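testing teh design pipeline on a random one, pls ignore if ur not involved
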């Protein structure tokens, strides 16, 4: 399929050919869900922890005699029903990540790109560069493109001035092509690819 290439002033510069096997698929929610779940699970720290009964520093002496008190029988102050006691069945440090085949991950990225293309929220620009690298300058460019919530994906690397200007704007993020991922693509309203990004993504997802 063909797509218009714009500059940051929203003027058409040329036309580019997009690979149908990457940008023209029928998006599948189950594939996207699997990849996003894998991504979010992988980034979890898994460092949550509590003190259990064995971790509490307290006397091991029996609290009071077994019989004759009129109260329930107890043998330890470390149990969870007493204030300062250990928790029962609390979380422990663990790894939340799980495996997902590379082919499914690549397929998920293709479906995410196709979803943006089908919904008309994919924009291709010739380059993501700024002369001065000022936030005001980038805001003016975004207004011309009609963007308020967008993910920019560049080629091998990201222009330093463009990155600096975008870092001060909420809901706008810039990534190199190697950092393109399903979660960030789906969570932004619009996806903006540079020509270099299109080439790199098509090489990566062939």
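output:
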């Amino acid at each position: 399929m063909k797509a218009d290439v714009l500059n940051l002033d929203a003027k058409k510069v040329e036309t580019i050919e997009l690979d149908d096997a990457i940008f023209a698929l029928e998006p599948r929610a189950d594939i996207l869900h699997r990849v996003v779940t894998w991504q979010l699970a992988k980034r979890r720290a898994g460092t949550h922890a509590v003190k259990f009964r064995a971790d509490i520093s307290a006397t091991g002496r029996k609290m009071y005699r077994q019989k004759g008190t009129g109260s329930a029988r107890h043998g330890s102050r470390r149990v969870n029903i007493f204030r300062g006691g250990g928790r029962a069945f609390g979380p422990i440090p663990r790894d939340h990540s799980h495996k997902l085949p590379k082919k499914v991950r690549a397929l998920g990225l293709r479906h995410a790109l196709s979803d943006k293309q089908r919904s008309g929220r994919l924009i291709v620009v010739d380059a993501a560069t700024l002369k001065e690298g000022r936030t005001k300058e980038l805001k003016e460019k975004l207004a011309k493109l009609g963007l308020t919530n967008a993910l920019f994906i560049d080629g091998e690397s990201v222009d330093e001035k463009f990155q600096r200007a975008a870092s001060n704007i909420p809901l706008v993020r810039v990534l190199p092509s190697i950092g393109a991922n399903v979660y960030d693509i789906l969570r932004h309203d619009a996806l903006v690819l540079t020509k270099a990004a299109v080439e790199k993504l098509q090489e990566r997802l062939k």
